[in-house]
Amino acid sequence: MTSRIPEKATVDGLEDRWNAAWESQGTYRFNDDVTREQVYSIDTPPPTVSGSLHVGHVFSYTHTDVIARFQRMQGKEVFYPMGWDDNGLPTERRVQNYYGVRCDPTLAYQEGFVPPHDGGDGKSVRAADQQPISRRNFIELCERLTEEDEKQFEALWRHLGVSVDWSLTYQTISPSSQAVAQQAFLRSLSRGEAYQAEAPTLWDVTFRTAVAQAELEDREQPGAYHRLAFEKAADAEEATGSFDSVYIETTRPELLPACVALVAHPDDERYKPLFGKHVRTPLFDVEVPVLAHHLASPDKGSGIAMICTFGDITDVTWWRELQLPTRPVMGWDGRFVSEPPQGLETPAATAAYAELAGKTVFSAKARIIEMLTEADLIEGEPRKISHPVKFFEKGDKPLEIVTTRQWYIRNGGRDADLNAELVAAGKNVDFVPDFMRVRYENWVKGLTGDWLISRQRFFGVPIPVWYRVDGDGNPDFNSPLAPSEDMLPVDPQADVPAGFDESQRDQPNGFTGEKDIMDTWATSSLTPQIVCGWRDNPELFAKTFPMDLRPQGQDIIRTWLFSTVVRSHLEHGELPWKHAAISGWILDPDRKKMSKSKGNVVTPMGLLEEHGSDAVRYWAASARLGTDAAFDTGMMKIGRRLAMKVLNASKFVLGATGISTAADSSLEAGVEAAAHVTGGALRGSGDAANDAVPGIVTEPLDRAMLAGLAEVVDASTKALTAYDHTKALEVAETYFWTFCDDYLELVKARAYDGAAPGEAIDPYADCSREAASARAALTIALETFLRLFAPVLPFATDEVWSWWREGSVHRAPWPVAEPLSDAAGATHSAGAPDPKLISIAGAALATLRKIKSEAKVSQRTEIASVDLLVPAAQVAAVNAAKPDLMAAGRVRAMQVIDAVTALEPGVDGMQPEDGSPDEIADTTVMRTENAELVQD
RNA sequence: GGGCCCUUAGCUCAGUUGGUUAGAGCACUGCGUUUACACCGCAGGUGUCAUCGGUUCGAGUCCGGUAGGGCCCA
After folding, report:
1. A79 and A60 housed in the same domain
2. Are both A870 and A916 inside the same structural domain?
3. What are the pLDDT digits (tens) for A276-314?
4. Residue A199 lies in a domain
5. In angstroms, rounded to a whole number, what is the distance separating the alpha carbons of residues A413 and A420?
């Protein structure tokens, strides 16, 4: 018969074994046969599968998993799904590179299409070399690749030991998610929260799509001020009495043909006489007004700026507030449109514009500088500067602004009442840590417009509307045709609105489908509705929504967190969850944020395989929520050592108590032996010391250890309840090392009860009362420690649990203090147990060890006799542990002496050799005198 | 420019409502293979709490200024 408890313990290989066991036993399966009060539901971030995983994911998902495991052990039925965010630009980009294709919606579907590349070498395929394919072919490739990516991701999460219910997995692009996103959109449409508008829109010319405010970032870019001369019109000459040109300085001279006005600050004396008068644009000879506006900065450039259609968002503000005309020049592809804007009338102007038409911003700028220089309309050399420029966070060209029809959802950006409601909603979210709320409030209060949700892309949830086409072939955007909710999901490009048939598509008096899709966030803002079954499972929804926890990174408070609050507020009038746990960043050893672009990322799977999942989890769990953490393999080594210690200490406890002897033959025998050793506690139920027969733990040291453990359980529980997993781990870990280094050593000999080395102990054989006390205490403590460590070290703890306890530790109840206090004999006739006895005995043991350490001999060396000088207040405690101390220190004879009394001459039997008094002795610290080691 | 967080031992970090002589782990040094563990054990040294000022009987902790680092928003 093979032994069930390994001869030599190892943490290697536990991941595969236990993941298989948890899967087959359904350990983390959500049981919906419960009430809302019994459920703890988690709104897990769906990672972008086409992105790469990094240690930051491992870090933050571990935080969530620790909470999930704690709540599960607290008796909650944990609703913990995982999702994949697969729609959107990142997937499209990856598909383009991976397969060497790009989407051209004008092409027809090709049956059995084989892409030109498969996987490739990971390098980008140049846009020009990408094969154009139909929208449907493109989406099929997106789906094929995300399916592959999802497998990789799932393998990693499983290896890490994330306790999600894998039967609840969802994709943001799946038909059911699309239906939820479309239904929420349609309801917002009917309530007037979703609307479309023709408006200046931030536009990424690479991806040819609109982007939202939340997706912007400022990047510092080199630029140059060019000083251009505007000739005065007659009214301006008259007003100033001067024929001198007006000079403006601009970083975007190429937008000169789009100029509609000049603007200066109302208080700027230099330009006051010009306000309301006119100037003429150089080259294009368009008469434009000079206006005043407070946003014009007197110290920027020459203090007067040109307003264009549209150079930046300030131009949009000026255009709106000063009610200016438009002169659009920028095409959706980032090139100048072929026709000059209105107002350019002279032959010279149209000829000048023809030089720019079709050019990119970059070459148009170069050309117009040449033309201005030739015409002597530019003064001096360009003045180089560095300035912030708006980019799409995923883009690599500066954003342009074009006027397009787009869909919006109200988010408080243009409505003070809604804004106030959303700020108030944020106050009711329990942010962990609390200061993260400020990020939310800053963002909400700083919104400048509604949420732009339409994207001119392909792989995403279609905006589910059609438009009537009039007799002239023009779509009527004012009254969109919506599907009924039971038709969802729909694809307006493939499906037909009620009352029409396919032959009427894009025909006069027919209909046309909306081509745009929704932004990714418009779907992922609905993850609570998706996972909780809002659309199709009202019973589940009632049991899981509002959810308990939203874990996420601080970088997406403005996007994911806020947009989820918006959707839930609009649809349900309540918060989507109670708590928001915000994880910090991972910093590399140079204190820089780890990111792919900096090339300092570490492959997570490699990390898990090298150190072990429990070890990596330990590192992650050692960092508090909201606090940045250093990437620290040293911490992983400590975690690995802790996991090893759990295995080895368990082996000792089970061996010394004799439970191993029984457990080696069968689990049932082990469980029964544990029940016997603990005097009836620890039957099969996993109920700690619940049924402990009072009185079996009799020795002061054992009682003190359990009393201390009860305090640790309280502290750990309190910390985890407050989402402070770091504190919980720390108190358990610290006490566990004391348990191993001091308590185990002190009771070792007593627990063995004279058994010979290597002898299998019979748990049922008669033993001394002192041994029985130690064995019961050891067993109860071990079982408690395993449960305390289970959330952080799920693999090592379940491994040990399986040796001698039934079921999984992850379904065992979280320990509580009371049974431990009872087992410690809180009402014992000898008085309440004193947890301090453990640290006092530990200090005494260290004092004895020090004798041998300083003598440079083995700790096994016997001490023939020694005087132990102890602070008065600790004498009783040391005496209580004296037999254990003598055994652990291998002391044959020991006198315990009050350290103060010892100062009196003669008491310790020795006079100081130099005749000086003993006043240097510190009576608050233990020390030894007259130690005699046994030679050999 | 506005906001948030951080600065404690060589490193990574604790330090609760202000209260003894500011702690832990790692690293380092020395010793040791003991019926759990060499992926080990034992023993040992380690500080201008960034800085300046204020409140207080008392400040790592509270208040203000300064410097440095990180992040978010303009």
Report:
1. yes
2. yes
3. 999 999 999 999 999 999 888 888 888 999 999 999 989
4. no
5. 10
Q: Are residues A674 and A793 in the same domain?
A: yes
Q: Protein A429 CA to nucleic acid B15 C1', in Å?
A: 28
In terms of domains, do A923 and A800 share one? Answer: no
Bridging pattern class, strands A629-630 and A863-870: unpaired
**Mean pLDDT taken over chain A:** 90
* Alpha carbons A529 and A566: distance in angstroms, whole number: 13
| Distance CA A649 to C1' B37 in A | 7
- What's the total number of domains in chain A? 4
Inside any domain, residue A446: no
DSSP A227: E
A846 touches strand B (CB under 7 A): yes
Residue lying closest to nucleotide B36, CA to C1' = A652
> Domain check: are A607 and A681 in the same one?
no
- Length of chain A in terms of residues written: 936
What is the C-alpha to C-alpha distance for residues A606 and A256, in angstroms, rounded to an integer?
55
The nt closest to A640 (CA vs C1′) is: B39
CB A880 within 8 A of CB A923: no
| Total-model pTM | 0.91
* A734 CB less than 7 Å from any atom of strand B: yes
A71 CA to B59 C1', in Å?
39
Residues of chain A with pLDDT under 70: 1-2, 120-125, 589-601, 683-694, 827-828, 902-922, 936
**Residue A139 belongs to some domain of the structure:** yes
Residue A632 beta carbon within 7 A of nucleic strand B: yes
- Give the separation between CA A273 and CA A238, rounded to whole angstroms: 10
Using the C1' atom of nucleotide B37, identify the protein residue whose alpha carbon is closest. Answer: A648
Q: Examine the domain organization and report whether A250 and A275 are in the same domain.
A: yes
pLDDT of residue A517: 94
CA of A491 to C1' of B8 (A): 60
Last residue of a domain, one of A628, A645, A679: A628
Is the minimum distance from the CB of A438 to strand B below 7 Å?
yes
Residues forming a β-bridge with A433: none
What Å value separates CA A705 and C1' B21?
A: 28
Range of the domain at A913: 856-933
pLDDT in tens, A567-602: 999 999 999 999 999 998 888 766 566 655 445 557
CATH of the domain at A528: 3.40.50.620
In a domain, A917, yes or no: yes
- Rounded Cα–Cα distance for residues A661 and A796 (Å): 21
